[in-house]
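Predict the 3D structure for this chain.
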Amino acid sequence: AANAPIDSYTIPVTLRWNTTLNRGIVQMEKAAVYLKGRVKLSISSESVLAPGQVNTASVRLVNQGHGAASQISVTVSTPQQGSLLRQPPALSSLEPGGKSDIPLQIDVSAASAGAPVTLTFTVAYKDAYGSSRTYTQTLGFNVKNVESTFFKILVSTDSVNSGEVKRVRFTVQNTGSVA
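Done. Predicted structure below.
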């Protein structure tokens, strides 16, 4: 049955019993069995976060299973280095092979520059049979290094004598990583 296709099946059932008055009573019945598949969720993201600001990130929830998920709610837990501005909205359903992109607003502290921030996602849902289930996954987000601006000032002459009028040119060069 592990490899049986998703479908409804009729299984013949033979019931045999004895009573105090009769022996060998046989009753033939048919039982309906419905295979609806299993839900198999995964969460992924390619978002990179910037330190010291609110970031808009996107995570993708995918149902890789053969059964539909419904009444889906996603709860995100954040570490101390960041905070989530609001929890994601609920999803009504996710069919087999279905994908849903979930936007997140994540405030990342400046101290997180260059280090990953780990978020924990807990997904509560009903499987194809109506049973309540949960799925938990931890996902790491890279946080960029702090971009810096450094200026170098060049002067066209080393000295100007008192009372002298001299043209002096100042050149400013940006040697940092931000334009």
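The chain has a mean pLDDT of 90.
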